[in-house]
Write a structure and sequence with these properties.
It contains four helices and 27 strands. By secondary structure, the protein is mostly beta strands. Helices cover about 10% and strands about 35% of the residues. The strands form six sheets. It has an eight-stranded antiparallel sheet with strand order 4-7-8-9-17-16-13-12, with helices on both faces. A six-stranded antiparallel sheet has the order 20-21-25-24-23-22, covered by helices on one side.
Amino acid sequence: MKDGRGRAIAVAVLMAVLGACSADGEQGPAVPSQAASSQPTSTTASETPSPTPGPTVSPFPDRAEPVAFEAGTYLMPSSSSSVADFTVTFPEGWMVQYGETFSKHPSTDGEVGFYAALVDEIFADACAGSQGGLIGVGSSVDDLAAALLEQQGPKARGPFETTLGGYPAIRVDLAIPRSLDLKACNVPRALQLWLSQPDDYTVLLPEDDAHVYIVDVDGQRQVFFIRTRSATSGEDRRELQAVLDSIRIVSLSVGEDVLDPTPDDGEAKVRGWPDTTKNPPGLYSWDGSRCASQSCIMSFMHNGYGSGDVEIRVEQVPEGGITDGATATTVAGHEGIYRRIDPRNQWWIVDIERTTIAIYLAARPGTSQADLAEAHAIIDSMRTEPRDNDLGFRLVFTLPTDDWTSG
């Protein structure tokens, strides 16, 4: 399995879902209580990932290994994994991987956990997985539920009507039948369920009880994938239940001021990399992984809603490289080099926290001086902020107009 950034995850920590004993002795899910059925709420947050009286915004540490974090209420901004912002409250003892996969007792028989996902396609045969074919699942909640119930491999039950985050939802329960021989499957001892773009594989293990909540958020589909294992204690099941009950999804219809909150200290919110739609002017960032909303082409943007003549790329490159013809300059507040290859192609290279970053500017013939000046202003605005991620920092920059997109 891989996460949304394409990094491999150990099979032992793949996500699935929760349960309490049902009448027939099988493990069934703990359904979010009526406390989770309140109306959608809006929130604002600071940018420090530690608890305060109000919700605090991620990013959580973006690492492959599980990282502990403080108890509290957190705001998860819309991203490549969620169509909308949502808040969630965690007690002590929870951990996070890749900034958005949450669990308790990771890599043990008693593990519980969940994450948000956007599911575009599922594997026709979960045993064949990525070696087989993919099936498109339409855009509605019912489309995905029907596809999961018909998928070859898992034992599926449902659909069950429920709620999560204050919105109507359908739940589909998944498990691996005891009679299924997993030895011949593409992933040994596991079934590959679906693919979320760009390459996020979700896998079901024999000891998992998986429950897929498919939520209708103002007409858009949101998935929460939750699991327990056969040895999960009753206490941990109840704690997971409380975490799920705490989720509040921010309505998509309440306006930009809610979806793009400004912290109380007056600092503007810093979004991720510009997405594939029209991006409003404001602060954005590059860390090689996080998008401003649910989809982006990471590291690439152009003024596609303007002339479309200019593009900017930000990439991590090997240390060293060609420096002939380059001159010393300052890049994002650090010593770097600059080279003008020709009137239409330029690049900047800078070492930040032992990582070498290259910034490329390319322009089509006949590009206006105004467009070139705007691109230079974006690059000149770049600065670094320390971050608890794989790089140890992010590049923050300003888009002065709504012309820029990664689509």
